[in-house]
## 1
Amino acid sequence: MYQALYRKWRPKTFDDVVGQEHITDVLRGEIIRGSVSHAYLFCGSRGTGKTTCAKILARAVSCENPKDGDPCGECENCKKALESFDIAEIDAASNNGVDNIRELREEVLYPPSELKRRVYTIDEVHMLSNSSFNALLKTLEEPPAYVKFILATTDPQKMPATILSRCQRFDFRIIEGMLFTSEGASKLEEEELRLQEKTAILAKQKVDKEALEVERNQRSECKNLIQEAISLKNEEKYSEALKKLKKASAMDIPEKEEAIRNIKNEIEEQKNKNSLATRFGNWLNTILDENN
């Protein structure tokens, strides 16, 4: 039976995941030490491996014989995990109501029926309603020992601080160009297909374009927050904008420094209005010095 390539070649172990070693090494170490967190937050653009790592982690926490932090794929639990009700994937885009979360809260009261752990992966979690986040908070804060949560999102800025503070956060990076094309070419070779260099470059450019669009939207939102914070002297808005700027400054994608400079110049124009702008300017100077 034909299987879509993304399903056929989806990594089955952390070792197979490409370009996210800063995350997979940590997760493998936690599996080995038995110090798995009760809740994780996977952030990043589309196609960076959030769902893949969530699937691997969900199997690894119940594996009877993990190998260097990876699920063995051979034990009974690994085989059952592929279809077990103890591993649930929830799409928050279509299940974002408070009733959906209340149903989840009732489910977690029951221990796993087949595996060692019950794992809930909530994709695009930022699309939950405010009342849904409030309903989830208590369960996320103190879940039963056998329950693990994995939250995945492309837009963590839309999530409440109360939820963010209860999770161990990982930020997935955009895959580098050479790594992207070489990995794609090797998989196609196994499918007895050839990937022309020009085609590989175009595919990578499309991925980068989507990532840059995310950054531009984030940058625009930061500017709006800054302008509002300056005009209203609003400390809460200032803190919100500051967090977003810090995240933007850490992103390893093109135009990062230009984005920060544009925001900095905008603040400089209003620097004499109040001390809030001065604090922004000083912070951005520090970031720019670190990047140079």
## 2
Amino acid sequence: MQLTCVGKDDGELKKLKKLAAKLHANVDFRGIVSEEEKERLYKECDVFCLPTLSENFGLVVAEALERGKSVITTDGAPAWKEYNIPSSTSTSSSTFIYLEGYREGDDYKRVNLLRDAFAQLSPAVNDAVRKADYAAYKRHIMSDSI
């Protein structure tokens, strides 16, 4: 599973890179990208996720939905709740998941909310999440026992 992070650094990039390295996660940090690159990334992605703590609207959510992508966003983008899209809605080509309680949670709760949301998307995604969880668990156990 590949995670691509796009956007400007709001002071968290160093922390995120350190966490990705610790978890041996396959993360590509892109920073700010051109419109052409953004279009290519939308086309290539299976799921678009905006796990925000504070967003006035989240135009990128609309862009992803317009392109038929499955979307996960949080109560940090409250405008999306006003559209009365049920918290978990599926069409033949995409799924919309709106996570309540993300803003008030700690990092552990946020990670679990996101993991569970990704697991809802499809059996293949669920399987990839379980494998990634198990691999991270094994690395943690092995590093603690050394």
## 3
Amino acid sequence: MLPTRLCRRAATRPAQGVARLSTLTSRRNGPTNAALSGTARGPDLNTLWVSYVDPATIRKRLVQVAQQVRLQLDSKPELVLPRAERTRHGFWFMRFGDEDELEAAQQLLNGQRFETKCGSLRGTLQLDAARRPLNLLSMLNVEHAEACPLAGWLEQTFGAFGAIDELRMPRLRNNWDSGHAFIRYADAASAEEALDRLDGTPSIVSGCNMFVDYAYPKPLVQYQQ
């Protein structure tokens, strides 16, 4: 039987809580009522899904990187962002006027070191031919940091409510920060208290609040470089 906290959350937050549970369960195992049935199809009551960066902030970060890359090119190609739901993936498109401009840009930038003006992101640029003519699929392969301040902040903030068994911060092959994490507690009571206390509170990222809910942590896909 599910704790009353989950039932109350579903009843009092129809705009967010139910929508999130529906996304997590219907995508894999069926309709929302399966998530609330108390069976194996329901959410993992020990694990929380945490969004610490909102989509608008991620989009702004991506635009800043794309614009700084564009300034290195004389051709000044058009910048095209992916669909809103894919901005968390950390790529964009550059659209050129002709093949010569595209080839020159690829030769100049592909594999080059890059660092944002503020120094918060650094790595190597990757420019590949896109499906559409005269477009390059562009991304920054962010270098791995030995120490992650964000991980430490999450462990400290959420660890105040109980022992954490696992902290997972999904990253794609370019190591771009997707803006969300999975935190698994040793017991469900700790997860419930953390959810109650931290949902909607300020994130470590300036101007962002956290959205916290029960979640299904999915296995990460391993990519080959």
## 4
Amino acid sequence: MMLSLADAAARLGVAPATLRVQIGRGVLHAVLIGHSYIVEDAEVERYRRDHLGKYGYASPDHPRHAPQATTTPPPAIVDAGHVDAVHAVPQVAEPKAEARADLMAAMDALAEAKRQEVAGRITYDELRAAGVRVLELRNAALVAAGKAPQAISSRRISDIIR
């Protein structure tokens, strides 16, 4: 027996839009006639048995079901000892030691430059140069870790020296 999408949705207790999404994903098989979908009764029952009430891709025969890759914990943010420049540290798992040491030294220099600029001992341009140096070394650490470097824009420089 063939059912319209609205009838199939009523039988399953879901919205017709839900079934359209499932058809688009390949979970529910239907035939498009004109602008309307037609679903076989057996297909509706298969969907009820295999998918209805299950969260996400619970069914092992789901077309998009794939074995879960082992997840690695998110990389830790390296604490430079001062809150102002912590956001400048790259979130990379294991950067090379030299790149990391250079970056940490530049962050310490940036923190000191911020204190000096507030005290009026250095100019804004000198503070900006310290910020650019941190971003350059951050990119070096990203490259050392095998990640893509980020563009150094005026916006990034402004964000880091605030």
